[in-house]
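User: Please fill in residues for this 416-position structure.
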């Protein structure tokens, strides 16, 4: 009995031992986390870094290099743009009378009656050039005044000071007052014109005067204006003074020549060439009331006459042809300034035929009128000249003598 009990106990112990061994084996094959004591972190857990390089299926060395690359900020290469020349565009047009013969001021068909308070009307058809350039200049032929006594002459012009608003409305930056109508209503009329222009922010230059104008984009333009006569030495000094003041481009505005004639005089050429030799770049001519040729000379350019433009002085002149000149100016990277190309835009002084409605309008390119204007500007026009009175005004002995002295030729020039 004792031996059986002992055997039984030994059997039970053997079973228990076997069970313990089996449990140990099972535990050794289970998940690692189940082998950690409760409440502790895993002792051996390896995870790849959460970077794009880590997900790339490459060698460990490549992965490390890629990982390092992502931690270094990329350096962008800064490129400095190469300097380039600047291109500026200047526009020129001829005689503008923003009014009419004073005796006709109340007539509806005259300039004030047609324009009224529609100040954008006169230059509306040429805004493609005036509105998109850097600088526009015209000759203002007649005072803007409601005071003064009319001069004793056949044609005496006047416009209301409010009509000065036409100029900024039409993108005109500067006018010449160096002409034989600026004082049609005496000194008070001239002063009122200056006040009207000051009031609308338009620059002006009188006879024998100089001004310096800077465009919005920074081109510095020096201007000298002359009515018929200036001593050539004095002219040279004034041009050099403008250059000394920093003018990059110098314009000389000449009121000169013979009315109704399509060809300039030798005297005009002498003045123009002397001015350019002294440092002027552009000669802007007016007064003949018709177009004359354009000449390139010694790096400069001469517009001998650009005719009438928005011209209230005559509602039916003999010649309706006119033009806008668009002149390119190039400022190189080293500061050198030169003239580029010029373009002529042939126009009529009126949008309708045979009667002046005071709104210069471009001719259709290739039309007979267009080609006629180009012939006048090239000096190849073969048509007959017209009499001064048909151009607009009549000659007086006093102004004829003045122009003769200016051009040094006895046939120079009918003045109003």
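Assistant: Residues filled in for all 416 positions:
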């Amino acid at each position: 009995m004792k031996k059986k009990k002992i055997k039984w106990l030994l059997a039970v112990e053997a079973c228990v031992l076997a069970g313990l061994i089996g449990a140990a084996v099972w535990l050794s094959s289970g998940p690692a986390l189940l082998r950690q004591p409760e409440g502790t972190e895993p002792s051996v857990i390896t995870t790849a870094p959460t970077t794009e390089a880590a997900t790339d299926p490459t060698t460990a060395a490549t992965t490390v290099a890629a990982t390092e690359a992502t931690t270094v900020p990329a350096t962008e290469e800064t490129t400095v743009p190469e300097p380039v020349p600047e291109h500026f565009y200047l526009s020129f047009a001829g005689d503008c009378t923003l009014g009419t013969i004073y005796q006709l001021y109340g007539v509806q068909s005259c300039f004030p009656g047609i324009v009224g308070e529609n100040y954008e009307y006169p230059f509306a058809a040429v805004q493609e050039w005036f509105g998109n350039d850097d600088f526009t200049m015209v000759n203002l032929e007649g005072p803007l005044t409601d005071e003064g006594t009319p001069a004793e002459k056949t044609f005496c012009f006047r416009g209301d000071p409010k009509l000065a608003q036409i100029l900024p409305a039409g993108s005109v930056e500067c006018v010449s007052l160096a002409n034989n109508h600026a004082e049609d209503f005496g000194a008070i009329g001239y002063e009122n014109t200056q006040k009207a222009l000051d009031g609308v922010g338009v620059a002006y230059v009188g006879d024998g005067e100089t001004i310096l104008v800077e465009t919005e984009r920074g081109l510095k333009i020096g201007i000298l204006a002359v009515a018929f006569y200036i001593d050539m030495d004095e002219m040279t000094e004034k041009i050099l003074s403008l250059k000394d003041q920093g003018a990059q481009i110098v314009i000389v505005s000449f009121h000169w020549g013979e009315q109704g004639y399509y060809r300039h005089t030798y005297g005009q050429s002498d003045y123009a060439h002397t001015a350019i030799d002294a440092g002027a770049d552009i000669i802007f001519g007016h007064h003949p009331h018709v177009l004359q040729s354009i000449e390139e000379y010694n790096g400069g350019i001469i517009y001998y006459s650009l005719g009438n433009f928005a011209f209230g002085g005559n509602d039916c002149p003999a010649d309706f042809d006119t033009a806008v000149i668009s002149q390119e100016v190039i400022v190189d990277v080293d500061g050198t300034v030169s003239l580029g190309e010029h373009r002529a835009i042939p126009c009529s002084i009126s949008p309708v035929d045979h009667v002046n409605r005071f709104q210069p309008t471009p001719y259709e390119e290739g039309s007979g009128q267009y080609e006629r204007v180009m012939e006048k500007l090239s000096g190849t026009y073969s048509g007959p000249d017209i009499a001064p009175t048909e151009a607009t005004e009549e000659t007086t002995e006093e102004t004829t003598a003045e122009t003769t002295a200016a051009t040094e030729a006895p046939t120079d020039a009918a003045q109003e």
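For context: The longest strand covers residues 86-97.
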